[in-house]
Each structure stands twice: as C-alpha cells, then as structure tokens.
Amino acid sequence: MPAKNQDLHGNVPERAEVALLLIDTINDMEFPGGEELFPHAAEVAPHIAALKQRCREVHVPALYVNDNFGRWQSDFNKLVAHVIDDNSRGRPIAEQLRPDPDQDYFVLKPKHSGFFSTILDTLLHYLGAKTLILTGFTADNCVLFTANDAYMRDLNLLIPADCVASLDPAENAHALEHMQRVLKADTRPSTAIDLKRLTSDKTPDRERHSTLPSQRGFRGR
Q1: What does pTM read for this prediction?
Q2: Which residue ranges form the domains of the chain, and what is each CATH number?
Q3: Cα–Cα–Cα angle for 178, 182, 188, nearest 5°?
C-alpha cells in the first residue's frame, strides 16, 4: 500500500539519497570549554562552508542538527539570531555557516545525538537519504553520538576529518579513528569526496563501501 503522504505535506519537496548534516555549528561557544574549542572549530569552519556549497551544486540538502541550548521555548531562527546578533564568541563561525531558511532544513535536539527525541528520522525517511555526511562539533561528543545512531540505522557515513573539531585535537583524532574503524565511516578530507559520483553511484551500499580505500592511518589535521 502506498504511503498516505509522499512529501510530508509539501515541506520536503526534495528526494536525496545523500544528506549533509551540520551538527551544533550554530553555537555561541559561551560554555565551559568554549574558549578552548573555538580555535579548532574556527579552523574547520571554512572547510564546512566550502563543502556545503559543493553539496548545494549537486542538490545534496543541508540539515542543521543543533542543540536547543536547553530552551524548549526556542526556535532555530532565534538561536541563529542569538549567536550572531548578541556578538557571542561563536559569531564568526555562525556567520560563515549561516543557514538559508529557504533551502536548508533544521532539527533541534535536546541531547547529544541528532536522532534522540527529534524529527531527524522522519526527515531522512521522506528525503530517502541512505548516506550521511557528518560535520560539526564536537567529533568526540555530539558528532560521535549521532554517527552511532546513524550506523545503527544502516546509514552509510562520511565524516570528513577536516570538517569536525573537538576541544582536544588528540581526542578529535581518536574519535575519527573510532568512527572509521567501528562505524565504517569514510574519514577522508572533504576535498577528496567526489560528490557527483556519490550522488549518481548505483552500486549496492555494501559493495560501494567495500571499495573505499582504508583510512586507518589518517589522523586529521
């Protein structure tokens, strides 16, 4: 029997087997450890911005999966305004990665994983996404928890090492190695991702993944 609603009442007009997730990139950095995280996040922000632009050119949608800062009365637009207009520590990063309300999707999360108590599952279902490109902060926390849940859902994972950051570079490298080894994620830099091939490849998922070169020795930037 066909689904009663094929397009989520018109709110998800796209069909995309690949989706780009920007995890906690709209962040005021005004928390314990934010000062230490900021320079590492600022280093990878231009790479995320460039990857997002490349994704747009091949019609890979961008999904902002963002913490709600513990404020259930907030909405995503208010969070963006707070980070940018209130001149927070995270403002320079948010300005580079400012979402487009007419093209990008938004998911607010209450905990570490982008899947926990959110609409992300439903959104990915309506998009028809089978492969996720994960970017954002931090690799050893929210990116890792989201990647774990994506892996449990049999989604293919790309987590470019130049598009994630953590407070401690050593922990960032360790998290990337863990996700590559345990979650079978491709952690090559974003510039090595062939988006045109990725979005047109009809090779079965398991076979396609088995052809990826080993990244076991890669330790990020």
Answers
A1: 0.84
A2: 15-210 (3.40.50.850)
A3: 60
